[in-house]
Design a protein that fits this description.
Layout: E1 2-6, E2 9-15, E3 25-29, H1 39-48, H2 50-59, E4 67-71, E5 79-83, H3 94-111, E6 116-119, H4 131-148, E7 155-160, H5 163-179
Parallel strand pairs: 2-7, 3-5, 3-6, 6-7
Antiparallel strand pairs: 1-2, 4-5
Bound molecules: ligand AR6.
Protein name: O-acetyl-ADP-ribose deacetylase
Pfam family, one: Macro
Organism: Dictyobacter alpinus
């Protein structure tokens, strides 16, 4: 686990399962149909219980690069933010869509005046986004937001499932902080 203070906000990178983390909002790596699936999405619906899917069905869907909020069922959070990252195909708009998926969650956190949010590594599992490209986008979106906004957030946690993902985020964060 590594912790940095950025503009007074604690940014943590830790390895683990996101359903075991307590935060005001937990971010789900969802699909545009909000239909559930494997990876983070499967873990969140299994651990959170059926009310989350009931709310997803009512909402009906979410465009790529956006996020919607539901309650968190049995999970130790107030909200689940279902964010839809791009499926990686190497198209020019994908970095921007990935950035917008993170930014939409940060905007929801400000709207609800949350103090803590936990992100998984969006798009880098089933959606195939290369880690060395996705990690700097994820981190830069958060760091820029903390620089530019008078935020309600006190803690942003990246919960990274395996050692390879944690290392990619650690490397990307060091490079971004060295640039400042
Ligand atoms: N906690 C934290 N990270 C996890 C967990 C977990 N419990 N499980 C997997 N990861 P993915 P995507 C990591 O595939 O690429 C689903 O079917 C995983 O190792 O969950 O955005 C949805 O329904 C990887 O590093 O999300 C969509 O259809 C990262 O989380 C689609 O997959 C993201 O992997 C979304 O694909």
């Amino acid at each position: 686990m590594t912790t940095h203070i950025i503009d007074g906000v604690t940014l943590t990178l830790q390895q683990g399962n996101i359903v075991a983390v307590t935060a005001d909002a937990i971010v789900n790596a969802a699909n545009a149909a909000l239909a559930g699936g494997g990876g983070v999405d499967g873990a969140i619906h299994r651990a959170g219980g059926p009310t989350i899917m009931q709310e997803c069905r009512k909402i009906g869907g979410c465009s790529t690069g956006s996020a919607v909020a539901t309650s968190a069922g049995n999970l130790p959070a107030h909200y689940i933010f279902h964010a839809v990252g791009p499926i990686y195909q190497g198209h020019a708009d994908e970095p921007q869509l990935l950035r917008q998926a993170y930014q939409s969650c940060l905007d929801l956190a400000e709207q609800y005046q949350l103090e803590s949010i936990a992100f998984p590594s969006l798009s880098t599992g089933a959606y195939g986004y290369p880690l060395h490209l996705a990690a700097p986008i994820a981190l830069k979106t958060v760091i820029d937001h903390l620089h530019n906004t008078s935020t309600s957030l006190k803690q942003v946690i990246f919960v990274l499932f395996d050692g390879r993902t944690l290392q990619a985020y650690q490397k990307a964060l060091q490079a971004l902080l060295a640039d400042h």
